[in-house]
Amino acid sequence: MAASGFMTVLAQDMKQADKYFNNFEFSLALEAYKKVLEKEEPSLLVVQRIADSYRILNNSKEAEFWYAQVIAFPNSDPANIYLYAESAKRNANYDKAKQLFLEYSEKVPAQREVALRMAASCDTAKKWMKNPKPYVVEKMEVVNSDGADFGPVRTKDGLLFSSDRLEVGNKQQTARNNWTGNGFIQMYFAQKLSDTTTTLANPVPLPPSINTEYHNGPADYLEKDQTLYFTRTHVVKKRATGSVNSDPTSWFKGSDNGTHTNRHGIYMSKFNGSKWENVEAFKYNNTDEFSIGHPAISPDGKILYFVSDMPGGYGETDIYYSERMADGSWGKPTNAGPVINTSGRESFANLGEDGKLYFSSDGHMGMGGLDLFRANGTHKAWTQVENLQYPLNTSQDDFGIEVDSTGKKGLLSSSRLSDNGFDDILTFEEYKGPCLLVGRVVEKFAQSGTVKTIITSVPDAMLQLYVDGSEEAIETKSDAEGNFSFPVMAGTKYQIKGSKKGYLSQTVAFTPECLNDADTVEVELTFIRSTPNKPVVIENIYYDLDKFDIKPAAALELDRLVQMMKDNPRIRIELSSHTDSRQTHKYNQVLSQLRAQSAVDYLVSKGVDRNRLVARGYGETRLINKCRDGISCAEELHQENRRTEFKILR
């Protein structure tokens, strides 16, 4: 009887835990499942539910621990290896994460491409952390709480943001949301203390006409007509088909066992100087079928960006836009396209003051969780998506960014400072203080009869440092090892001009990216002897097979040659092109002449006098190794013969 009673209690505990989990009450589900574990041997279901709950709550440290337990069960689904890897990656445990992604790629061949891309992203993240961008990132004062604070929007009067804090002062603001254990998301405003300061007063919630009892936010604000665009979450009864959409911030697709789910819509309200009025729904809201949220309005009010999981997208959630018609209505939503959207989650779109589209994604190559990205182009033709890298991104969720007109200062939302996955609002600004430039002057030349490069130091060279656009310089000389240094300011454009008798003068332009005043930036100047008729190989000048047009990588190298010609206005040079021995002698001669002429034409297009340049194609007449006609050679040896050189004629 005692054993029977114990089993009955255990079954009741398990039933209650499952109820919490299926109702998205994950903070309660965790405690309930742990209570079950205290009474019985761990089972896959219970351990899996604990791991899943921690993952959904963005507590990656606990999730990594519990997924390690999950995959120890012989009958664990291989998908748990992927979830374990994601959790390890979010904790910046990149070596472990890479190992797990590779293991998953072997066990699930259908997902091999995705898994290998994720494994590669671990190496990329480590590289970015070793070479951080020059930003100072700090937790913002006043606005942050013990809960999740995110989605900052600056206005001329203060700061609008969203938060799930339970209390404001000593007064409870919302009911407890058992998903997280915090409150429901509400919108807050922190007023500037005066027109002449950026210091903010304590935040206060927006009125009940905006903040309903359930989730409200994130939002955007159009200053010119004082209109608030915001997300509002609705509880709707689930249909037999369709996705389950439960998390107001991440669109987590939860269990299908419940009877209701959360879906989002966009709403607008104008501020008339004293109160918010006329809350209107976006005409394309359709909470019975899908969610629309995370609004971002263009500064002119003509384009509304938003996030949706409506049918026909590229992934879990996509970024869309709608254009305002002549009559003031909103046009049909248009997907922002595959340059922006992936098979993952794109969210938190924002149009920066610099005219670029900022958004978060876990589908593009990133460091873990949601990463911040920037896209160039226009709403109809976004061209290039760029990861903002470390420290704007971390292994945790980084999202909800707002930038100024320079793109180098602003606010962002991140869970990086929290052990429990809750978000904070952070400030960031490019570092522009003092640091140290450390440089070296070297000479590089090819070992006779080979393409092997020999590097030697150049001592006693004169170095002059100019602020870009200035004619005043500070000077120093390289020491016996070719080393030199200058104090510099991060973010300032400089030019270093180097010279020494017997060498061509050289100028290098650079902008230091330093993290603090103890940081250093490295610059190398490569000197070339001013010896007539001595060939110098121009590195990285490659052509496609049978082609002679200048590729972008080659243009970078030729730009250095353009600068050398400007630094040494008296010299005249021959630009020569060489082929390997494949194809006929005549064909190679013609092709090499075309390539040499293309290089000369490029220099002329950049302002070099054509009378100072001679184009000469040598075909296969000056091979530097044994790879002549009739001799079998590796591709690397043929590549050595395909080269571009210059030599000083006078």
Task: Report mean pLDDT, rounded to a whole number.
Answer: 90
Uncertain regions spanning at least 5 consecutive residues: 240-257
Supply the CATH class of the largest domain: Mainly Beta
Question: Helix amount, in percent?
Answer: 10-25%
**What strand line-up does the widest sheet have?**
1-22-21-20
Number of helices: 10
The amount of beta strand, in percent, is 25-35%
The CATH topology of the largest domain corresponds to: Neuraminidase
Ordered list of secondary-structure elements with their pairings:
Blueprint: H1 2-22, H2 26-37, H3 44-56, H4 60-70, H5 79-90, H6 94-107, H7 112-130, E1 135-139, E2 149-154, E3 158-163, E4 167-168, E5 171-172, E6 186-191, E7 204-205, E8 216-222, E9 227-237, E10 260-271, E11 276-281, E12 292-297, E13 303-308, E14 318-323, E15 334-335, E16 346-351, E17 357-361, E18 371-378, E19 381-387, E20 398-403, E21 409-414, E22 424-430, E23 434-446, E24 453-457, E25 462-467, E26 473-477, E27 483-489, E28 494-499, E29 506-510, E30 520-527, E31 536-538, H8 552-567, E32 573-578, H9 585-605, E33 613-619, H10 635-641, E34 643-648
Parallel strand pairs: 23-30, 32-33
Antiparallel strand pairs: 1-22, 2-3, 3-6, 4-5, 6-7, 8-9, 9-10, 10-11, 12-13, 13-14, 14-15, 16-17, 17-18, 18-19, 20-21, 21-22, 23-24, 23-27, 25-26, 25-28, 28-29, 31-34, 32-34
